[in-house]
Every structure is written in C-alpha cells, then in structure tokens.
Specification:
The structure is a single chain. This protein is α/β, with parallel strands linked by helices. 36% of the residues lie in helices and 14% in strands. It is built from 9 helices and 10 strands. The strands form 2 sheets. It has a 5-stranded parallel sheet with strand order 1-5-4-2-3, with helices on both faces. The protein is globular, with a radius of gyration of 19 Å. The N and C termini lie close together (11 Å). The structure holds phosphoric acid mono(formamide)ester. Phosphoric acid mono(formamide)ester (CP) binds next to helix 2.
C-alpha cells in the first residue's frame, strides 16, 4: 500500500530526510502538483490534522474535496473499504484517513491510491510524530541524548505510542509520567517534579475522556494539582526546556491556561510545523520517494 500509515517501518534516515525537506519548505522552497485531487476522510473529530492536511494540499496546488462522514453512505452501511475504493475509482491521487479503529488500514491493503494516516485508534499518528520531531530538531539541532517526559493519558494516546517508538530509535531518552491508571509501562516512569527539573522537553497530553470506558478516578482539579503543568512546576524547568502538546488542550487540567502561550511553549509552533511536514510527506509520496 502506498502513502504513510505508520513510522514503524520507516528508517531513521528516511525520517530525518522528511524533516529536512519540511524545513526547506518552511524556508520558502516550493513544489506544485496542479491537476491533482485529494480528500480528507475523517471519521473522528479533528481540527488540526484535517485542516493542516488541507492547507498543505492547497499550498502544493492540489485540489481538495470535502467529505462529511455523517452525510456519507457510511450511514447506509457502506464499508470503509468500499468508501475508500470509491475515491480511488473517482480518480483521486490520495486520501487522508482518521478512524477510531486501530490499524484500520489493514483492511485497505488492496487499495492502490496513496493513503495518509491521520490517526488510528490509540496506535499511530505518524504526521503528528513527524511534526513533533521537526519542532524538537528546529529547537535543539539534534535528537541524540535529549531527555523527554510525555505526561498524562499515555494508555489512550496514539501520539505517545508513536513518539516513544521513534524517539528511542533516534537516541532520545524517553520517560512517561502522570496518573498510574494511564501508565501502560511503554517507557520508564518519572515523577512530574523530577521531569520538570531534568528533562529537555515536557510533552503534555490531553486526558482523552472520549476514549475512556471508565470515569477518571480523580477530579479535574486533583489532576491539575498532581499531574498538570502548574505555575510552580513551570518555575522548576531548566532554561532551555520546551513545553509541547499535540492539542487540543484542556486548559486548566494538564496545563495552566496562562502557560499555553508561555515563553517556553512551542504548542502553536507545532501546529505551524504540521503544515510543512504534511507538505513534505505528500510531496515525497507523489514523487515516489516515500
Ligand atoms: N493533534 C491533533 O491530532 O489534533 P486534532 O485532533 O485537532 O486533529
């Protein structure tokens, strides 16, 4: 299958190549694919990923078709495979898909049109991982030896799982922190206070209430006090430490509202970088380089 579904089968050399290309595009390099057509098929809510992909397509001169899952023939019982096969039959040059089912793309192995994964269940979100890496690389100029703590609802987070896998391969020291009920032991545990004093990157995650089968055992106020980036913890950070968050942000829970745009926050820069990473990925797939 063509496209980008997961980073697990991409070499670190290829990942660095995507980031370098995204940085060139951010620096003003241009590429156009006039006459190409793509669609974003989102079966789960999204603001950043959907509109960032659409912006990337428009920047590349690609025509974007709108798709509304709630008014599509999925509601008449059409399968995901038949929906995607339909877009292939219409002559599209690629689709972006977000779906709540882990590895939904395994059902789509017979599709010949490129597929870009905009997130599957709690498993993969490759372009989010790439934009996170681009933001880190832009800041520090390297990956090796950097210490990151990913804090919060780890067990329901496709961002955390993808980042831990690729960051370890790139030579970063990865830790997880947050409530024990969301600790899936996918990396070594560090207390948030210790992380704030020692890590180069604090990556906060939203508590993903929509994926929970059971109610959180603590209140939102208790979460903020024990596991959130408070003003006191912000003061503990090293001078060059940065704060990241894939967003959407639950202000006042995982991060104090006044810190979302603090000096050390790179949250909105991550979103800007997402456009360039997605331009790079689309371009490399269309050119046969990915
Ligand atoms: N970071 C992210 O995936 O955001 P959206 O859910 O808004 O796309």
């Amino acid at each position: 299958m063509k496209g980008l579904l997961t980073l697990k089968n991409l070499s670190t050399t290829k990942i660095k190549e995507i980031i370098e290309y995204a940085l060139k595009l951010k620096g003003g390099a241009t590429k156009t694919y006039s006459g190409k057509k793509m669609a974003t098929l989102f079966f789960e809510n999204s603001t950043r990923t959907q509109y960032s992909f659409q912006t990337a397509m428009l920047n590349l001169g690609i025509n974007v078709l709108s798709f509304n899952a709630s008014s599509s023939s999925i509601n008449k019982g059409e399968s995901l495979y038949d929906t995607v096969k339909t877009f292939e039959a219409l002559g599209l040059d690629g689709v972006v898909i977000r779906h709540s089912q882990d590895e939904y793309f395994k059902e789509l192995e017979n599709i010949n049109m490129p597929i870009f994964n905009g997130g599957d269940g709690a498993s993969n979100h490759p372009t989010q991982n790439l934009l996170d890496l681009m933001t880190i690389y832009e800041e520090f100029g390297h990956f090796e030896g950097l210490k990151i703590a990913i804090v919060g609802d780890i067990s329901h987070s496709r961002v955390a799982h993808g980042n831990i896998e690729i960051m370890e391969r790139l030579g970063m020291e990865t830790y997880i922190s947050g409530p024990e009920e969301y600790n899936d032991h996918s990396a070594k545990y560090i207390s948030l206070d210790e992380a704030c004093k020692t890590c180069d990157i604090i990556m906060l995650l939203r508590v993903q209430f929509e994926r929970h089968l059971e109610k959180m055992s603590i209140t939102k106020e208790e979460y903020h006090k024990n596991y959130g980036l408070t003003l006191e913890r912000y003061e503990m950070l090293k001078d060059n430490t940065i704060i990241m968050h894939p967003a959407p942000v639950n202000r006042g829970i995982e991060i104090d509202s006044s810190l979302v745009e603090a000096k050390k926050s790179r949250i909105f820069k991550q979103m800007t970088n997402g456009v360039y990473v997605r331009m790079a990925v689309i371009s490399m797939v269309l050119d046969g380089d990915l």
